[in-house]
Amino acid sequence: DLLCAGEEVIALVRSDKDHAAAQRLERIMLGWEQELNRTLPRPQLLQGDLHQPGLGLTKSQRDWLREHCRAVLHNA
To answer: What are the CB-based long-range contacts (under 8 Å, 24+) for 58-66?
Structure first.
């Protein structure tokens, strides 16, 4: 919904043993595009992990998030 509304979205995605974070995100996006029958803008990708300290992000990535994000949506 946020992407369809033109909102900028940053997605925190973890890699798994079979797929890099970018591949996982692209597969999800392609599924939604097929479902909605339209092309969607791609969210900005941050590779991380909710189970890791600091979300698995570097200090500079966390600082950037604090500066540029006004809301967090956790869909797990």
So the answer is: 65/10
pLDDT at 76 (0 to 100):
65
- Contact in structure between 16 and 51 (CB atoms under 8 Å): no
Please say whether the beta carbons of 5 and 64 come within 8 A. Answer: no
The CB density around residue 2, as the number of other CB atoms within 10 Å, is: 11
**Which residue type does 22 have?**
A
Structure tokens at 10: 């940053």
Q: What is the pLDDT of residue 21?
A: 95
Q: Residue ranges of the chain with pLDDT lower than 50? A: none
Inter-CA distances, 41 with 2, 19, 47, 53, 59, Å: 10, 21, 18, 30, 27
